[in-house]
Amino acid sequence: MLRIANALETQLRGAMQRAFPEAWTEAGEAGLDPQLAPASKPEFGDFQANGALPLAKPLKQAPRQIATAIVEQLQADAAFTQLCLEPQIAGPGFINLTIRPERLAAEVASRLGDERLGVPPVQGAAPVVVDFSSPNIAKEMHVGHLRSTIIGDSLARVLEFRGHPVLRLNHVGDWGTQFGMLITHLKQVAPDALETADAIDLGDLVAFYREAKKRFDDDEAFQTTSREEVVKLQGGDPLSLKAWGLLCDQSRREFQKIYDRLDIRLSERGESFYNPFLPAVIDGLKQVGLLVTDDGAECVFLEGVSGKDGKPLPVIVQKSDGGFNYATTDLAAIRYRFAAAPDGDAARRVIYVTDSGQANHFVGVFQVAERAGWIPDGSRLEHVPFGLVQGEDGKKLKTRAGDTVRLRDLLDEAVERAEADLRSRLQDEERSEPENFINHVASTVGLAAVKYADLSQNRITNYQFSFDRMLALQGNTAPYLLYALVRIAGIARKGGDLDASTAQLQFSEPQEWALVRELLRFDAVIAEVEEELLPNRLCSYLFELSQVFNRFYDQVPVLKAGPDALPSRLALCRLSADTLKTGLGLLGISTLERM
Ligand code: ARG
Question: In angstroms, how far is CA 183 from the centroid of its own chain?
């Protein structure tokens, strides 16, 4: 309904201008604001305009009187009367607006067969960078990275659907002191791993990393050798580089398995990519006079961010030993991402999806970039934080043995449980299905459940992971949404021709109108997600749409409808299916015809 809302907004502004020309002139360039919003209750119509109320004081008139004058002007506008029924003034002076049924039906008709479902494409847009997933080499990808992967992928899909060129960047942690420790340790305990690919698997690598870390913390000689190893690596020593490359490959292969399983596309551009640009960060900061040497380290002191002692906090960009750190790399990445092609990405919006624990890091880095003048006018840098994944006990998610949960195991368990649920349902329904059907449904439902459970939460809050809840057929869950689609596919199987041409749509039942109005919200929801980067808004919408669809399906005959009503009802089924499928697709969730 965005198109309709825009038309209404223009008509309301015109009416206000004609009704109160002096107030209009005084309000300046922006003019008077009609304060148009969706109706707060269905019985109030489709929209309400509250712009009369703030005019009461300056105009020294009762708000209802002002509303009446606006309505009079609206009614004199043919474009308005063709769009809306007669406006109603309610309460202190709200103007309630109801779109003419034939206009709503025409909107539905225009969305049938429109694969964009009424969502306007952006044109000539600059690239948007979505920096997500970004696990660390030689460490296991953990549930935090899973959240980043799922949320980032969904945001990237929404932005792509709008028509933005999206760069999906995997900013993997593939550089730094951890390699010094790891290489030193492996040289002693598993030298093969540094010379031949596939000598160890990631599980072992993670264990080696843990051992190396322990030695590093306990053993001074080991520390020294590790540091020397880092220097060698940074100096481009061929043997060290080779070992580093092998370790990265090993991890990369493991990560890729998870991405393939979850249907995630990502371009790897790890921290090491920015190595050549790090010295320029320091020089650049020096040039603009932001750099301060403090205790041998080069840093920028933040404005408005202070530590416990009340002193401004620094962002350290070069340690006293000359090494650079995480923040330096992120500053180099910001410059690169905003810089014009071919030496940069020419992006105008850069989005980082990480846990909220990194919020301070991004506040600092963004401020430094801003003060250094590295953020072009009209560009946006946004941190998209999310909360922790917790077990059902509200504590950090752990296995029963108390270990961190491995992603592979978590996905396996979701699929296994989905399979068990399906088998018991088949038994109850005395249905028999071939094994390949069971496997396909179980893996689709299991992965959908994991993704949807994560995305449907407001990402800012911590999220309690529960297989039972996410796999339930009732409630705001993936299986519930998938099931609505299965019902529609069932209509087609029973002979309903969903693609039949529908010259004239007509609706009579309130359940039909409720569904029409719900379907027409899709474009506005996409616009909201694009702006606020909250996939849970899309989830709530799809859940509500499924509920409204199910009410329609349960209470209004479709296949048994008379010849007048049948084509319009089938059209509603089809648009519901297309909207659900597209919406779930934007969440990275694939759908089923039967389950
Ligand atoms: N590798 C980091 C981690 O595991 C996340 C990187 C996020 N992206 C960035 N540009 N800092 O915590």
Answer: 37
The closest residue, in CA terms, to atom 6 on ligand 1 is: 134
Structure-block tokens of residue 541: 């919408």
Reduced to 3 states (helix: H, G, I; strand: E, B; else coil), residue 257 is helix
Number of neighbouring beta carbons within 10 Å of residue 114: 12
- The ligand 1 site (C-beta within 6 Å) comprises 131, 134-136, 171, 173, 330, 333, 352, 354
Neighbours of 77 (CB within 10 A): 17
Asked whether residue 28 is assigned to any structural domain, the reply reads yes
| 15 inside domain | yes
Amino acid at 170: N
Is 485 inside a domain boundary? no
In terms of residue numbers, what domain contains 234? 177-268
Whether 441 shows a pLDDT value over 80: the answer reads yes
Enter the tokens of residue 357. 């624990």
Tens digit of each residue's pLDDT (9 = 90 or more) over 54-73: 988 888 999 999 999 999 99
In a domain, 57, yes or no: yes
pLDDT, one tens digit per residue, over 352-377 is 999 999 999 999 999 999 999 999 99
Instruction: State the total domains in the chain.
Output: 2
Q: Of 224, 239, 268, which residue constitutes the final position of a domain?
A: 268
End position of a domain, from candidates 47, 76, 99: 99
pLDDT tens-digit profile of 295-311? 999 999 999 998 888 89
Indicate the pLDDT class of residue 202, thresholds 50, 70 and 90: low
**Å from CA of 450 to ligand 1 middle:** 22
Q: Whose CA is nearest to atom 5 of ligand 1?
A: 134
CA atoms of 363 and 382, how far apart (whole Å):
10
